[in-house]
């Protein structure tokens, strides 16, 4: 029987997943972040990725949380390889990309993330070429970053095509989400943010939460923040976490699952997401390198 690594290596060279004509990079890079922990950022990222995939999009999920990588835990899977093995040239891209539920392709985080920020020129070139083998055949690459704003998270946010900020109606989450945007905006004012309110009691609470952040950003930062939407507070989410299965798969008819589906549709159809041409993974890394200088 064909093992997972062999299947992925074949997928890399698959004619059905060839890059756009002329070799142009098509992948849109999305960084998902939050001002604080405990707002359901990783859970959102996972289910959002699955929603995009269910719509026929080619998706790669990258767990970029250096300290608390847990995407594989939420899926109930164990990754044999992670980024570390690629950076040490102990495995190729076809081996470190793992398959999650519904054949979602992902790269496990944790070990190896520290090394990513201190590569030699030779190692960086190898890493970029390897990632590009798969990334140029994707529609979306999602980076799930750590909570808060570390210097590493800052680089992911300011190098991506889009930044999705996840918050909840809790006052501390609202304050920290605004603080994150403020710090990033002060250093890189060209960065655009899209807000998602998680664990909302209803649409009214979600709108009020969004308005507080957006009005503060407009007044004090002269920054326009778009509101992508919200996800309802839903007990099915907690049940799914305990069972280590994405809630959108375990409870597809739950309010949270339907909300994520709606967010994915809105994101794809939004003018903001369609306006700017995606830079692709090489463009992302080149921009990311400039952030290191």
UniProtKB/TrEMBL annotation:
GO molecular function: ATP binding; ATP hydrolysis activity
Database matches in Gene3D superfamilies: P-loop containing nucleotide triphosphate hydrolases (3.40.50.300)
Single GO BP term: negative regulation of cell division
Domain of life where this protein originates: Bacteria
InterPro entries: FlhG (IPR033875), MinD_FleN (IPR025501), P-loop_NTPase (IPR027417), ParA/MinD_ATPase (IPR050625), YlxH/NBP35 (IPR033756)
Key words, A-Z: ATP-binding, Nucleotide-binding
Any one cellular-component term (Gene Ontology): cytoplasmic side of plasma membrane
Alphabetized PANTHER family for the sequence: CELLULOSE BIOSYNTHESIS PROTEIN BCSQ-RELATED, SEPTUM SITE-DETERMINING PROTEIN MIND HOMOLOG, CHLOROPLASTIC-RELATED
Keyword Ribosomal protein recorded: no
Native species: Paenibacillus donghaensis
Presence of keyword Nucleotide-binding: yes
Name of the protein in its database record: Cobyrinic acid a,c-diamide synthase
